[in-house]
Design goal:
Layout lengths: L3 E7 L3 H12 L4 E5 L26 H14 L3 E4 L2 E5 L5 E5 L2 E10 L3 E3 L15 E2 L2 H4 L7 E5 L3 H10 L5 E5 L9 H8 L4 E4 L2 E7 L6 E6 L5 E5 L8 E4 L3 E3 L30 E3 L11 H19 L4
Parallel strand pairs: 1-2, 1-6, 2-3, 6-17, 8-15, 9-10, 9-15, 10-11
Antiparallel strand pairs: 4-5, 5-6, 7-16, 12-13, 13-14
Helix pairs in contact: 1-2, 1-6
Length: 315
């Protein structure tokens, strides 16, 4: 007879690991399933500055996640490295089927995350975290006094660009169209900022640099003219931020009865509960305003606490 876990956690990013820590510490039998490396998006971040209690002398995504993983092990979380292929979430017993086995739990916490929609230019992967970023809140400090370019024209792109102007010497929005898609109220604020500039009808096509981003090609989509941008000689580099949307890892769950918004993010209440009893969602894959390690960890702590209450018949 297969083991019936109190909680099965899908994903080992900050939200999933925090849930594992709280679940294990509450003496819940806890299983974490992760198909790749622990950490999700944060695992490729070279430097972290804004996580409370981090190592001030230097904290990277991998170093922070490694400690979270050890905490889960310390409190008895079981681990499976496998890919989830289907789930059955309704009823008292939830079933999670992977390539190499099926697991059953009284509750499930979905922590599958989201990933930035890529800019789509040559060299993008090579310079990720080496000049290319997708999070102004995370990385703005690293570009203080430098030139920064932002790809996108919607609300988030313009808002993030305005945030970056507080740190960068100059910020330039590169947009494929000749006008922004952002709300008029946001545009009005943006156009008043002196160090915020615009390249219209343009798309980044190629990135260059010796280990760090220092040059790029920007093509005018109407004329075909290519502008080659080179970093300031004294700087030796510049920043490129992509804000053309994020893609939630929720496709697997679209036919399960779970409520999703129009973009594919899970809808939860403040206690991470979904519309299916015993199913909770944490981190970047749920509808929320701020997607950061600290908010994912908070989500995980709340969800695991709610699982404890659910298993013990308190909710």
């Amino acid at each position: 007879m297969s083991k019936l876990y109190d909680v099965i956690i899908l994903g080992a990013g900050p939200g999933g690991l925090a849930a594992g820590l709280y679940g294990g510490r509450a003496r819940l039998s806890t299983l974490i399933i992760e198909k790749g490396s622990d950490g999700g998006q944060i695992a490729i971040t070279d430097e972290i500055e804004n996580y409370p209690g981090q190592v001030l002398e230097g904290e990277s995504g991998p170093s922070l996640i490694a400690r979270m993983t050890k905490q889960c092990e310390h409190f008895g979380c079981e681990r499976v490295s496998d890919t989830v292929v289907s789930v059955e979430l309704k009823g008292d017993v939830k079933k999670v089927t992977c390539n190499n086995g099926t697991y059953e739990g009284k509750t499930v916490i979905i922590a599958t995350g989201a990933y930035p929609r890529p800019i789509g230019c040559e060299g993008e992967k090579e310079f990720a975290s080496k000049g290319v970023s997708y999070c102004a809140t995370c990385d703005a400090n690293f570009f203080e006094g430098f030139d920064v370019y932002v790809v996108g024209g919607g609300d988030s792109a313009v808002e993030e660009a305005m945030y970056l102007t507080k740190f960068a010497r100059n910020v330039t929005i590169i947009h494929r169209r000749d006008e922004l898609r952002a709300a008029k109220s946001i545009q009005e604020k943006a156009f008043k900022i002196e160090n915020l500039h615009f390249m219209w009808d343009s798309a980044v096509t190629k990135l260059y640099g010796d280990g760090i981003l220092s040059e790029m090609d920007v093509k005018n989509v109407k004329t075909g003219e290519v502008t080659h941008i080179v970093a300031n000689e004294d700087d030796g580099m510049f920043g490129l931020f992509g804000f053309i949307g994020r893609i939630p890892n929720s496709d697997l769950f679209k036919d399960t009865g779970l409520e999703l918004d129009e973009r594919g993010y899970f809808i939860t209440d403040d206690n991470m509960r979904t519309n299916i009893p015993g199913v909770f969602v944490v981190g970047d894959v749920r509808v929320k305003e701020l997607r950061q390690v600290v908010t994912a960890a908070a989500d995980g702590a709340i969800a695991a606490t709610m699982c404890d209450k659910y298993v013990n018949g308190l909710i």
